Amino acid sequence: MDGTGHLKHRHEGSAAGAGSPGRLAARAMDVLFPPQCLRCRALVEGPGSLCGDCWREVSFVAEPYCACCGHPFAHDVGEDALCGACTAQPPSYARARAVMVYNDASRDLVLGFKYADATHAAPSYGRWLARAGRACLADADMLVPVPLHWMRLFRRRYNQAALLAHALAKETGIPVSPRALVRRRRTPPLGRLNREARRQRLAGAIAVNPGQAPDLKDRRVVLVDDVMTTGETVEACARQVLRAGARSVDVLSLARAVRTEV
Predict the structure, then answer these.
(1) What are the CA-CA distances from residue 207 to residues 96, 229, 241 (Å)?
(2) How many angstroms separate the CA atoms of 26 and 9, rounded?
(3) Which of 87, 212, 241, 262 has the fewest other C-beta atoms within 10 Å?
């Protein structure tokens, strides 16, 4: 353990030494298929990483931020400070944390993973999520991905939130319940809608899978999603999970939008 509850201890230099068959095979693959930057495809030292230029361009979320929704603050305003939105209307979830700010620099990473089959990045994103959500994961019982409507899943062939949840599970040992939530009806794309419009579109769209409801009772649940924009999607999910009897709900996302005012 490394002080984070379920987080697994990662052993270094054990039986898989420098001359092991697995290590030699990995080196051979690196020669045949040199590892590339997840964002710009430049050559990098190891798979699943960013080159130096892209690392500097991507804005990773770090303190200070809102103690509830994780929205970054421009200046330190004190421990446990809340942003204006959370003060005015506290969300149903307890905490939301994200790896990076959703902007021009991170958009290629997120959209490539979401729409362009860049699923090879999932293990790296799982490691990033484990670091960004360390506090939320410390006593979590279950990971629940934000659901995708079956028609959209059929077209896309995978739910990007579920891939992130499974990658995070490999890093932490926390079990995933991929079908705990369902989208009962297909909603139009929400990307350009404001908070109120999103709320109206999502009304009644997300529900707990009846067969999975008992598994949520008294559980500390972490919702996993790719992008948190206005927060209305994870809010709708959190309300349903809490109604099913979950003890608490936190949120982890790969990226999050940043408001101009907090």
Answers:
(1) 20, 20, 8
(2) 22
(3) 87
CATH code of the region 59-256? 3.40.50
Q: Please, are residues 250 and 155 in contact by the beta-carbon 8 Å criterion? A: no
Q: How far apart are CA 51 and CA 39, in angstroms?
A: 8
Taking only the tens place, the pLDDT of each residue in 226-256 is: 999 989 999 999 999 999 999 999 999 999 9
Q: What is the pLDDT of residues 25-79, one digit of tens each?
A: 545 545 556 899 999 999 998 888 999 999 999 999 999 999 999 999 999 999 8
Q: Residues 199, 205: contact at Cβ < 8 Å?
A: no
Which pTM does this prediction carry?
0.84
Q: What is the pLDDT of residue 17?
A: 47
List the one residue out of 232, 186, 121, 173 whose CA is nearest residue 5.
173
Closest CA to 184 of 219, 136, 149, 151: 149
Instruction: Give bridge partners of residue 208 from the DSSP assignment.
Output: 181
Share of the chain above pLDDT 70, in %: 81
Domain boundaries, the chain: 59-256
Q: How many CB atoms lie under 10 A from the CB of residue 69?
A: 25
Calpha distance 145→34 (Å, rounded): 32
Q: Which residues, 6+ apart, have CB-to-CB distance to 164 below 8 Å?
A: 122, 125, 126, 129, 145, 224, 225, 226, 254
